[in-house]
Amino acid sequence: MAIKLIVGLGNPGAEYVATRHNAGFWWIDELAREGGASLRHESKFHGLVGKARLHGKDVWLLEPQTFMNRSGLSVVALAQFYRVLPDEILVVHDELDIPAGQAKLKLGGGNGGHNGLKDIQAHLSTPNFWRLRLGIGHPGDRNEVVNFVLKPPRKEEQALIDGAMVRAQNLLQHMLAGDMETAMQQLHTDDAKKRPHKKAPEA
């Protein structure tokens, strides 16, 4: 299935704009600029919505304005109105379990404790939507997670995250054409090349 709706997850409000938890919003903002789309507040969709023309395809862009833990309300409202199926939806979000500088693409699976994914899954009644997971790294202590995601990345982390977003954006053509396998393969191969190689133990 080709992607018809791209949802970026984040929290509304100026105080959250630069925080790690808003990585999904950052990606949507870039796509809107590239596709010449204006994101406007649509109360019936509980979010900022725009239609972009990217790589010869029309695609809906959505930034829910419900706060993260109620993102599903916005997603399901737009998906039902425009008859977009779950596997035609790509949700872009921050991911603690992936280092900054890497991004992963997958269909379905668990929510990893991510409140935005959890609520979307509940509203769509299925986990089978696509996810673009933008790595932000982990603070190392579970008790620090909330504080960590609600703070801006360090300068060097931001550069790594920006790089991963560009690599994912370069594969958007495949996603919009429904060739998710190629997009996944190239994205994950690029990430593997960027991982530091462990030195082999000396004999």
UniProtKB/TrEMBL annotation:
<feature type="binding site">
    <location>
        <position position="69"/>
    </location>
    <ligand>
        <name>tRNA</name>
    </ligand>
</feature>
<comment type="subunit">
    <text>Monomer.</text>
</comment>
<dbReference type="InterPro" id="IPR018171">
    <property type="entry name" value="Pept_tRNA_hydro_CS"/>
</dbReference>
<dbReference type="GO" id="GO:0004045">
    <property type="term" value="F:peptidyl-tRNA hydrolase activity"/>
</dbReference>
<keyword id="KW-0378">Hydrolase</keyword>
<dbReference type="GO" id="GO:0005737">
    <property type="term" value="C:cytoplasm"/>
</dbReference>
<keyword id="KW-0963">Cytoplasm</keyword>
<keyword id="KW-0694">RNA-binding</keyword>
<feature type="binding site">
    <location>
        <position position="115"/>
    </location>
    <ligand>
        <name>tRNA</name>
    </ligand>
</feature>
<feature type="site" description="Stabilizes the basic form of H active site to accept a proton">
    <location>
        <position position="94"/>
    </location>
</feature>
<keyword id="KW-0820">tRNA-binding</keyword>
<dbReference type="InterPro" id="IPR001328">
    <property type="entry name" value="Pept_tRNA_hydro"/>
</dbReference>
<feature type="active site" description="Proton acceptor">
    <location>
        <position position="21"/>
    </location>
</feature>
<dbReference type="GO" id="GO:0072344">
    <property type="term" value="P:rescue of stalled ribosome"/>
</dbReference>
<comment type="function">
    <text>Catalyzes the release of premature peptidyl moieties from peptidyl-tRNA molecules trapped in stalled 50S ribosomal subunits, and thus maintains levels of free tRNAs and 50S ribosomes.</text>
</comment>
<comment type="similarity">
    <text>Belongs to the PTH family.</text>
</comment>
<dbReference type="GO" id="GO:0006515">
    <property type="term" value="P:protein quality control for misfolded or incompletely synthesized proteins"/>
</dbReference>
<dbReference type="GO" id="GO:0000049">
    <property type="term" value="F:tRNA binding"/>
</dbReference>
<feature type="binding site">
    <location>
        <position position="67"/>
    </location>
    <ligand>
        <name>tRNA</name>
    </ligand>
</feature>
<comment type="function">
    <text>Hydrolyzes ribosome-free peptidyl-tRNAs (with 1 or more amino acids incorporated), which drop off the ribosome during protein synthesis, or as a result of ribosome stalling.</text>
</comment>
<feature type="binding site">
    <location>
        <position position="16"/>
    </location>
    <ligand>
        <name>tRNA</name>
    </ligand>
</feature>
<dbReference type="InterPro" id="IPR036416">
    <property type="entry name" value="Pept_tRNA_hydro_sf"/>
</dbReference>
<dbReference type="Pfam" id="PF01195">
    <property type="entry name" value="Pept_tRNA_hydro"/>
</dbReference>
<protein>
    <recommendedName>
        <fullName>Peptidyl-tRNA hydrolase</fullName>
        <ecNumber>3.1.1.29</ecNumber>
    </recommendedName>
</protein>
<feature type="site" description="Discriminates between blocked and unblocked aminoacyl-tRNA">
    <location>
        <position position="11"/>
    </location>
</feature>
